[in-house]
Amino acid sequence: MATPTLRERRRAAATQEILDAAERQIAESGPAALSLRAVARDLGMTVQALYHYFPNRDALVTVLITRAYDDLADAVQAAVAVPPAQRAPGDADMPRLVIAAEGYRRWAIANPERFHLLYGTPLRGYAAPVDGPTTQATRRMSAVFERELFGDLTDGQLAAIEVPLLSPGFRAFLDGLPYYGSGRLPAPATALLMSAWGQLHGLVVLEVFGHTGFLGEHQAEVFRMSMLKLLEDVRGRTNTAQGR
Asked: Among 10, 41, 172, 225, which one has the highest count of C-beta atoms within 10 angstroms of its own C-beta?
């Protein structure tokens, strides 16, 4: 690859400064308060100068969302990459799915406003580009959890997963979804993945948005217990498939 020119390096540095300032603004005031004018003011530049890097708020928001998804996926991947012997005491034998879920939870708790940007109230007037960078980032996250749920199952076993009877319309919808992992999932596996994701993500949302604060220091224990129960249910359904 060619060495970036001085102009390209300066542009990259300025773009990074703008993104950092925008993330500071989100951390201090929440996603809804994001303003190009405030970002420019924080950096001592004019809004017109900022437009040379981001033509409008939506362009900036798209990059911020993509970066947040990528950081979250990195955190989950880093959690499962830790060798069992190097995990916290008592966690050496913890299933990888639980480790991944707890990596997700830790990132969300440490970055509540960025998590809110991803999963909170949609920003008024913002529409993500169709099949754009934000979509690619969410697919990366989906692929990580799919691997931890189904990585050792064959296509035939995935198709034989036991789930409640799917209506023809829902099955056709699932079959038409874009695929994010290493191959297309059969409809029963996709339905199970969506259900598991809903349970995992729902608990994190409740905690990050302050609805389980009454549990205090026990929130982590409740989350782990729930993830172990979720995994038990998933394995019960996939073990039946593995026997076929």
From this structure: 41
Which range of residues forms the domain containing residue 19?
1-55
**Separation between Cα atoms, residue 61 and residue 79, nearest integer Å:** 27
**C-alpha distances out from residue 10 to 14, 15, 157, 177, Å:** 6, 9, 53, 41
Instruction: Quote the pTM value.
Output: 0.89
Q: Which residue has the higher pLDDT, 178 or 169?
A: 169
Could you please report the per-residue DSSP string of 84-134? GGGSSTT-TT--HHHHHHHHHHHHHHH-HHHHHHHHSSPPTT--PPTTSHH
Q: What's the rounded Cα separation, in Å, for the pair 140 and 146?
A: 10
**Which CATH number characterizes residue 87's domain?**
1.10.357.10
CA angle 130, 28, 59 (to 5 degrees): 25
pLDDT per position as a tens digit, 26-77: 999 899 889 999 999 999 999 999 999 999 999 999 999 999 999 999 999 9
Same domain, 46 and 75: no
CA 240 – CA 193 distance, rounded (Å):
16
User: Cα(38)–Cα(76) distance, rounded to whole angstroms?
Assistant: 32
Q: Tell me: do 136 and 225 sit in the same domain.
A: yes
Q: Using pLDDT thresholds of 50, 70 and 90, give the confidence band for residue 150.
A: confident
